[in-house]
Give the backbone structure.
Amino acid sequence: MIRLWPKSLVGQLLLIVALMLLLAQGVNSFLLYRGAQSQNLVEASTSAVSRIAFGQDRQASDRPMRRGAMPAQRWGRLKYSANSAVTEDMQRLPELEMRAGQAFANMGIVFSDIRVTFTRNLTTDMTGHLIGTNRRAWRDNPINRSMGDKRAPPETRGFVIISAQQADGQWISIASVVRERTPLLVRTLLFQTITIYLLMLIPLILLGRYISRPLKSLTAKAHGFQPGETEDLAEQGPPDMRELIRAFNVMSSRVSSMIKEKDVMLGAIGHDLRTPLAALRVRVENVEDDVERERMVAGIEDIDHTLDDILSLARLGRSREQSDPVDIRSLIETIVDEFTDLGHEVHYQRGDKQSALIRETLVRRALRNLIGNAILYGKAADISVEKSGNKLMINVDDDGPGIPEEKIEAMFEPFLRGEASRNRATGGSGLGLTLARAIARDHGGDIILTNREQGGLRATLVLPTG
Amino acid sequence: MTHKIHILLVDDEASLRQPLAEYLIKQGYKVQQASDASVARSLLNAYDFDIILLDIMMPGEDGLSLCRFVTDKTDIPVIFISARTEETERIIGLELGADDYVTKPFSPRELVARIKVVLRRAEKSGTKQISTSGAAYQFSGWTLKCDKRSLIDADGLNISLSTGEYQMLLALVSRAGKVLNRDQLLDITQGREAHAFDRAVDNQISRLRRKIESDPKNPEIIKTVWGGGYVLAGEVKSL
């Protein structure tokens, strides 16, 4: 059921309308069915009333009944008895009793009591006193014929029993067949429903298309939004949809101009800070004291790295570098070699060829940051690669103190470092993990930090395989 | 060297240009300063320079355009000095025929070292380094693309190389069949990267072999010549 539920606006609209129509038609047909039922009941009881009235009439007149004129099988014999055929345990139908009383009164016949009931199974004492059993009679009925109804007479649904008490206390009873007329009804309703469906749903589908087409193109545009895009989405569809598209166009151009402003500003910061930094770096060479000079140089390099991280983070997602399938082994080796050249202990055992579609410069940077952290907080880094499904996991393990579980997520926040002291001498801008995660996510992957069972931290760079 | 090496320093930022010029003069060079490309052009007409240090981002005509002019008209080697660090621009700069590239802030000592390497290389070969612009080589199932500095294996997979490894491989591939000794290899590849000085050629070669040889212990592609150096075996197709 849930799987069949349509996801699109038009689909849902259509389904709801169809369901509501079906419900309305259901209620409608139920009412019609009930109407037909009582109609059949009234017809049957009318015949019974006529039969009783006829019997009374004949009883009153002196003319003897001519044999054959009223065949018993057609009319049934009236039952005369001391007790009513409608016993106390049967459910009486007051509405029909009232109608019958009215009919008798109109014909000038007076009964002291009239009882009417409906039953599905006729008791044996009434089987001889039944009218309406002749099916040909139903077909020959002038009303049915005039309606052009040539079908076989419908099945018997049950019987109406009318019992009337004469002034002398004797009861006259007769049963009458109630016919089932519903098959015709069901077919008519089905036809009606289909007609309504066609008339309603076709324009609804067209209307839905009219609304959903601009909605679809708007969705596609929003998904593929690239800042700096100048082409506006054409306004189409109903007026409120046009208004939405207009608002979207204005918003996207505003976003584009803000991002452009940001880029210009970043470029200016990059240039305007690096140039004086470079001048400072040159002047530092004039410092005679070697120790002092080295410290100054380290300070300048630190500022430069922080600047670099900030700019990279801000520029991420707008990189002009394109993605290539890269052998991850060679990428890890390149970074590991950088660290071993600087005298750090980094282990990596070359495994099977693993490909990932990445922007190499960025992923190198992310991995470099992870290994840098491992060396900063532990003594050595151990790198291993795992493949699981379409994900490639590069694990960087260290033998450091790890991170308390509750602080792990906070590690990704910019400018936050594991140690309490924010001493620059320990290195790192505090953007390393932030940048690494941003890079990983930009590739559709992530960075996951877990404490290892044997102590130390495992940083996992997850990348989709290429 | 009987005459002082003559440097043209082009940078619009006086705050950097002046201390750098002072530093270079202290190191024994003769330095002319230009604050923009037009001043640089007139100085180029007036003097003979041995090397040009060129800032990329300048108001008016930028460093890339001036570099194109210099490499087209003269043999003077160019070293870019730029605040930009994006990898693509590094490549653009080298594509245009600049001999080296330093990013701000740089160590002045390192700059001097690079100037020396570039000058020695220019002196030795008479011409500048082999132009690699847009070139690609195919050897033993590998493709080396110079425009993107990428090495691609038979399956189309990129192999990550450090700058030093790339330079080393390019030197071997572009001179395939020719034995290059360690000094020659150092000469060709040095200067591009700060740490290249400290790194032994043999170390680079063994790292390269690990990445491209199917059995690094019995190399088929980069072969060792006893007493001589290294040579790239097999056929190389230049694309």
